[in-house]
Amino acid sequence: MRFRNTLILLVILALGIWSVTYLNKRDVKKEESKKANEKLLNLSSGQIQELWLEPGNFHAVRDSVEWRIVSPIQTLGDKSALDAIANLFDWAKTERIVSSDPSEYGEFGLQPEHKRLIVRHSSQIDTFYVGETNPTGSFVYAHKSGSDDVFLTTTSLKTNIEKSLFDLRDKSVLAFEQAQVREATLQHGAEHLAFVKEGAEWKITRPKALRADAAKITDLLSKVSSQRVSSYEEENPIELKSYGLDAPALTFTVFLGENRAQKTLTIGKQSGDQFFARDLSRRPVFKVDTAFVHRLQVSLADVRSKKILHFNASDVTRLTVRQNDSTFVFVKDTTKTWTMVSPQPLGIKGWKISSLVSELELMNAVAFVDDSPTALRPFGLDSPQMAFELYQDDRLLDQFFMGRRDSKDGWFVKSGADPAVYSVTKDLRDKIKIDLKQLLETPAAEPDTAATVK
After folding, report:
1. Residue 137 pLDDT more than 80?
2. pLDDT reported for residue 443
3. Strand segments (E) across 63-173
4. What mean pLDDT, rounded, does the chain reach?
């Protein structure tokens, strides 16, 4: 009897568990179906292949990488603007159905049907007719092809349909990926600069071989790649002279990837607070801001490296300093502690030598004085006031020489590996000068022998 009762209870329990599970699954499916029905389209934005926006008669097609506008003109689309329209269908939904009577369409701005968003996904096309915003301005009235229902949905549907051709087309002044740039040239006035990337380093090759300031080159490329067109002036210009683009005032070119694909931006005449410009790979003439053009008008001095010495402070294990008539030699042991070995072994504040080496490593010129001086005497560098030699063990890493003051109260300097003479700030000498009294470790205090122990 007990066994029979237990068996009956087990069966009831099993049926209860099955019922709960079944009902839960049914409720989940019902909820999922409800959510799917709430969305304007039951798909993801990535499935959308074409868009038509009316009454602008704009037609955009997406491939695996980008959007292209094919009507009313053929041009590259603005990826962010067109993606925003496609992305609506990831989240936009039917908020509430307000009517199912086509005779009432006029009350919602849907008769006549003059605002439409047509979407192609796979082999299917769906059309959304968009009317006016509701009285609170929170939603817009719309209905979908194949259904008489008028529903409330996001106002983004209306604002996106009302976008202009300028909103939807690509507005890049010169479209390129900065990481792909291998060479670049810039010409304006008498300046004709050329840069080449070797590994992670940038070098100037024109007007002469020089080290480049990598940060300045990167900033220049970033300015061009991120700049946007202010307005389009003419789609298919018959002539370029009226825009000053037959003989551009400024030309900027990048060479991309291993095959050195070329892209060129030309800047023409000024027009008010803007300049006419053109990407040579496209026909339209457009305008760019005056501030952007001024930022491109860099000189050789702007883009060349201002670093005077080229070594890593962590590599330096020996430093020789000649200052007036004295010579100091410092060495760093395996514990990275600096000591003085000449003119005599003494304990020093090692951090001061570390700071000195770092100061030399990070030192920048404030002016380029002479790249190929015929003599060093005019700069006081034939017999420098200070000379530094930096070694890694017995290998000379670099040298630095400081001459006399310049006309601006700075100092003429040069490195050992470069004939060029530079100018540095007037306070540099005080930062790198050896002051033995301040350098030596403070002697330990003598005990007070007069003290009385109680």
Report:
1. yes
2. 54
3. 67-71, 75-76, 96-99, 116-121, 124-133, 139-144, 150-154
4. 88
Query: CB within 8 A of 261, min separation 6: which ones?
Result: 255
Structural domains in the chain, CATH included, are: 45-168 (no CATH), 178-303 (2.60.40), 313-439 (2.60.40)
DSSP 83: H
Per-residue pLDDT at 6: 58
Strands across the sheet containing 210-211? 210-211, 201-206, 191-198, 181-188, 250-256, 261-271, 274-279, 285-289, 231-234
Question: Would you say the pTM of this structure is higher than 0.85?
Answer: no
Give the long-range contacts of residues 64-70, CB within 8 A, separation 24 or more: 69/165, 69/168, 69/169
What is the rounded CA–CA span in Å between residue 337 and residue 334? Answer: 7
Nearest to 173 by CA among 123, 223, 234, 125: 223
In the three-class reduction of DSSP (H, G, I as helix; E, B as strand; rest coil), residue 239 is classed as coil
* Selection from 228, 235, 250, 254 nearest residue 173 by Cα: 228
Helices (H), 143-213: 156-161, 165-168
